[in-house]
Amino acid sequence: MAETPEQLWERARGSLRMPPVHEWRSWPFEGDLRPRELEPPGERERPRAGEGGVDCSRCGQPDEIYLWTNERWRLTAPPRNGLPVVVLLEPRVHCDFGSIPEELVPEIGPMLVRVEAAVRAVLHVGRVHVCRWGDGSEHLHWWFMGRPERLPQVIGTLAAIWDDVLPPTPEDVWEENLATVAATLR
Description:
By secondary structure, the protein is of the alpha+beta class. It has a single domain (5-185), classed as 2-Layer Sandwich (HIT family, subunit A), CATH 3.30.428. 25% of the residues lie in helices and 15% in strands. The protein has helices at residues 5-12, 105-120, 159-165, 171-185, and strands at 68-69, 73-76, 85-91, 125-131, 142-148. Strands 1-2-3-5-4 form a five-stranded antiparallel β-sheet. The longest helix is centred in the middle third of the chain and has 16 residues, at 105-120. The protein is globular, with a radius of gyration of 19 Å. The relative contact order is 0.18.
């Protein structure tokens, strides 16, 4: 029988453990840390922005604010942060992963490969992490995080945290990197 959120929460109360992250070369912090206690489960899932297409901040955006668009897809960038380049791919149509229109399904793999290659075209990007988190917005989107080459700590699952830890990429470099991605997609 599956464990309910309440059962998991009860099991975790007072029993959280600290993983050995201080031993990882990629861990960006020093000093003592401890896990924050797990909050009890809510009554229901928290609503996401744009649920059901209502008041979706992505749907009504004009193409001019995007780095690249075609008839079915659009590419944008979040605010500048510490990694050399981060972009988000989203379909034009409002959907979530489980409700992707049938006509888009065959395009997903090729689009992911194509955008990853465009991010990899940016000078000094070592790898590109392709991520999908579905908790903030219902409008489907994938993150492409280009991490710097040859920095052994800025790797793997912690690259997203390093994006917040590193000082922001200089604006002119950020703009040039985004232009490289857009030009490669054209």
